[in-house]
Amino acid sequence: MKQILGFAVLALGSVAVWAQAPPPVFPVPISGGDVIPPSIKAFAPGDPAIGFDGRDAEPYVIANIKGVTAMGYTMGVATDGAGNAYQVVTDLRVFQGDYIGATSTFPAGGSTSARAHGTFVLI
Amino acid sequence: MHDFNGGIGPNGLFWIVQVPDDAVVKTRDTLTISLTNVAVVDQISFPGNIFLGSTGSPAKLSLNMTFEKSGQPRHVRPTSKDPLSPFTWAGEMSDATYSGTFSVAYNDHTFSAKGSFGSTQIFAEMGTERNGSFVRHEDQEDEDQQDGQKAAAAASLPNSVTVGQLSASATLPANSPKWRGKVPVEYLVH
Q1: I need a surface site. Which of B72, B79, B91, B142 has the fewest CB within 10 A?
Q2: Model pTM greater than 0.80?
Q3: Which residues of chain B have a CB within 8 Å of the CB of A85?
Q4: Does the model's ipTM exceed the 0.90 cut?
Q5: Residues 48-67, chain B, touching A (beta carbon < 8 A)
Q6: Alpha-carbon distance B37 to B177, whole Å?
Q7: What backbone phi and psi angles, to 5 degrees, belong to B19?
Q8: Distance between CA atoms of A107 and A11, rounded to whole angstroms?
């Protein structure tokens, strides 16, 4: 009985939240990616001669997205709080645009597609 | 070694952090982003601990960086229909450079560092992109447009013209869709 009551309270709570704001739209990862292994949901655009996937390889890691992107790899230097020096290697990507992600629609959380806008950074 | 990243989501979303739209400022040739105290994790090594997902030492990262176009735009079209391929997207990209500064600190204050990047450029690009359903939708529109043009051309032909005669004598109108794809990359080095 406790479980049933708990579920009822949860359902009512969800309705209240739903009325206040649209449900979140979760971005969905791309289908493919580099097999390191393991398989990850990201490609590495760049010159294949030095080990990358190709200049025209997919830079986004989010599927069903349309917008602006900037990405790249650089090197630099850093110093920690104890004065130790480090070499820095970056893979930073910025994505901004409209995307079609997953939103919870059915009672158990079953998804349907929904469109949203967002800014994402791959760090 | 330290590897600070946004963690891997339960659905596999890789190293992604959502930030406010106004963190990004765009001009025609530049894109600047400023982040303050973004939650990241230090996974200590890469790729050795990559299976750890979002676990690691929690930390906060602040950074400022600017991308700047450095080359002519190139048009990218899908050259593969394999959904697992890296060549299924479309867009217009330009080579770029980027540089910036950052600071990072563990939440428990046992480690912190600050530095800069961009002194050595390996590869960078910026532009516009669409993938997944945004590409399939446009491809379908292209096919529909081509089908419409074929139907219009067929409707204007006399009934006695055969397909063979059409193939031998037809010339493409000036505004016909042209092949815009690229030669598929067959050999990839990892």
Answers
A1: B72
A2: no
A3: none
A4: no
A5: 50-51, 61, 65, 67
A6: 49
A7: -130, 165
A8: 9
pLDDT in tens, chain B (190 residues): 898 999 888 899 999 999 999 999 999 999 999 999 999 999 876 665 555 555 789 999 999 999 999 989 999 999 999 999 999 999 999 999 999 999 999 999 999 999 999 999 999 999 999 999 999 877 666 666 666 666 666 555 555 444 434 344 444 444 434 434 333 333 333 3
**Contact across the interface for A75 and B50, Cβ inside 8 Å:** no
Question: Residue B140 class from Cβ within 10 Å (0-12 exposed, 13-18 middle, 19+ buried)?
Answer: exposed
Most distant CA pair in chain B, distance: 85
Structure tokens at B114: 């600050």
E strand spans, A3-110 = 65-80, 85-104
Question: Which pLDDT score, from 0 to 100, does residue B156 have?
Answer: 58
